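Reminder to self: tokens first, then the designed residues, so the page reads top to bottom the way the pipeline ran.
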């Protein structure tokens, strides 16, 4: 499910300093780097945040297509590792092409906003269930929000299993 994290971010993006004015970014960046390393995920030295709305629409469309690669993994890498502006249609169509998707079809889907309604539905649903951050793990009206240690997620899953056994 897609979630509107900083939906007010302009298409050209914002520096992290502008997104978090007055905050010391070094501890935030260090924490994210450590969490990603612990999860075995690559993570770059991000300086900007970008509006993810069009990337979410591309992801929704890509989920209806057959492709050579997981578009979501490629979008993650573009944003969190390579610092690519994922609000840019040309950047997104290049990512779609790298996933083995039809570039012209991807461009059309984005330019005409063909999956806008589907992402709007996700955004409404995320608000309805109280999602406040990403990632959020949700089941049985229970949620774990944010990048959590493995042990926390394991406890969450164990609790869900116990609920189903009742």
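Designed residues (166 positions):
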């Amino acid at each position: 499910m897609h979630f509107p994290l900083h939906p007010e971010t302009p298409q050209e993006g914002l520096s992290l300093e502008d997104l978090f004015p007055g905050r010391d970014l070094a501890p935030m960046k260090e924490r994210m780097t450590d969490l990603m390393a612990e999860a075995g995920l690559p993570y770059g030295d991000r300086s900007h945040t970008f509006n993810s709305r069009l990337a979410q629409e591309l992801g929704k469309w890509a989920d209806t297509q057959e492709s050579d690669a997981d578009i979501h993994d490629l979008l993650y890498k573009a944003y969190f590792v390579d610092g690519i502006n994922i609000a840019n249609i040309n950047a997104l169509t290049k990512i779609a092409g790298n996933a083995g998707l039809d570039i012209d079809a991807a461009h059309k889907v984005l330019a005409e906003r063909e999956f806008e309604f589907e992402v709007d539905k996700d955004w409404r649903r995320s608000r309805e269930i109280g999602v406040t951050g990403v990632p959020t793990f949700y089941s049985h009206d229970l949620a774990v929000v944010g990048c959590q240690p493995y042990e926390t997620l394991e406890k969450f899953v164990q609790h869900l299993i116990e609920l189903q056994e009742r």
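The mean pLDDT is 93.
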